[in-house]
User: Which sequence fits this backbone?
């Protein structure tokens, strides 16, 4: 008999936050929010680079920030970020992420994670 595949979560996602634009994109593509979250906590990092996959694997063990990017059927990219303290996971459209040249909200000085996402992941970036 075929048994369903059971994925074991690698970490607790904390509070789930989904931006309205990400929710609209997921709904218009028929992708449930829970499926994106389950992929993320199971260690399927999506379309991030090999370096970022290795960084995520280390981040899970070391208690650092974890990042995944998934491409939807309409080619919209969804960014999923779990904070280093596992207090929250945010799901947003990648184009909602400010470019590194744009002003950002001030962050805590005790931040313990790399500056992600890599600019090459931005919507419409050339390869």
Assistant:
């Amino acid at each position: 008999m075929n048994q369903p595949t059971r994925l074991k979560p690698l970490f607790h996602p904390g509070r789930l936050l989904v931006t309205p634009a990400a929710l609209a994109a997921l709904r218009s593509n028929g992708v449930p929010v829970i499926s994106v979250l389950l992929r993320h906590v199971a260690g399927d990092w999506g379309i991030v680079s090999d370096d970022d996959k290795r960084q995520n694997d280390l981040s899970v063990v070391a208690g650092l920030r974890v990042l995944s990017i998934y491409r939807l059927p309409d080619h919209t990219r969804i960014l999923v970020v779990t904070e280093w303290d596992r207090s929250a996971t945010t799901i947003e459209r990648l184009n909602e992420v400010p470019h590194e040249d744009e002003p950002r909200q001030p962050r805590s000085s005790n931040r313990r994670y790399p500056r992600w996402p890599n600019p090459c992941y931005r919507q419409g970036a050339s390869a």
The first strand starts at residue 15 and ends at 18. The chain has a mean pLDDT of 84. Residues 50-62 form the longest helix (13 residues). The chain has three helices and four strands.
